[in-house]
Amino acid sequence: MMYSHRPNTVDKTLAASLASVILLLVSLFLPFLTLQRSGINSSISLIDAAWSLVFSDVALLGVFVLLLIVFIPLTRFGLIIFVLTRLKFGGKATPGLKRSFRYALALEPWAMADVFLIGVVVSLIKISQLAVLFIGPAFWAWVALIMTTIFISINFGRDTLWLRINQQ
Amino acid sequence: MHNRRCDRCGAKLQSRKLLSLQRTWAFLLVGIFAYIPANVLPIMETKWLGGSSNDTIISGVVALYESGSIFVSLVVFVASVVIPVSKFIIIIGLALTLQLGWQWSEHAMHRLHAITEVIGRWSMIDVFVVAVLVSLIQLGVFLSITPGAGIISFGFSVVFTMFAATSIDTRLLWDAQTNEA
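Predict the joint structure of the above. Result:
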């Protein structure tokens, strides 16, 4: 299929992108997992986790993770929101607008929130014998984020959006 | 063609990606070379009272399998071994086909190329596993997990293989056919 028309793609994608940004920010700061061992509870949020990695002797690992699950997804959502609000409110199709949309498309494979979730599940199973773990609210926010991201890719009418951009 | 831009998206027009094959080989070689230490060196070290163990990618898979999580061990094995190795093979195949003018079905080659672009990112699972375990287990004296050099090599291997896949100019696959006709 070379071309596909998706109705309401601007509104649906815009709404889901805004929701995704909120969910991502919420999951960064709320407790993601709580670990219980010998009576000690320690909760950890994603931002704590990433920060402790970035300032450890394996800074590179922290940088990898921050880029792939925080900065690249946020940049991508930001670009999509920028382009779609301009479209919705009749902004001009400037070269900057087109470039933003191109970059948003190019960033897609590098936004790895979904891969990260599988990694979290594998880690949970790996240490289930060493410690008792509880899933925090940020984990569920992250699951919701995966759903809004899937919703975006289902309703993302790339061709329709390029047409709209060029009609402005 | 010089300095013309696409009417639709504003990207610079290029007949063919510059030095597509050279770039592909360069990225791919880095990806393959980084994959060797990724498998030989430990990806993480677990220390507890009175003992410690080094995990490599394969020993991590085996440990999961032996603990009874057969499905999960399979997921990790596919992400860390099957996907990277099949990506190496597919990209080598595509690059050699272009280089030596082999005749294959272009549709099959395009499909293989599309598949490598879609599945490559799932290799990152192990990197995230180590990152989560390391930051989660900070219980000091009882138990500590530190990442090994292997996981960084593995991350680089995945990133460079993704670069290699995107730097293949798929239009070259059609050129090979047109030149023959």
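Residues 7 and 71 of chain A are 30 Å apart (CA to CA).
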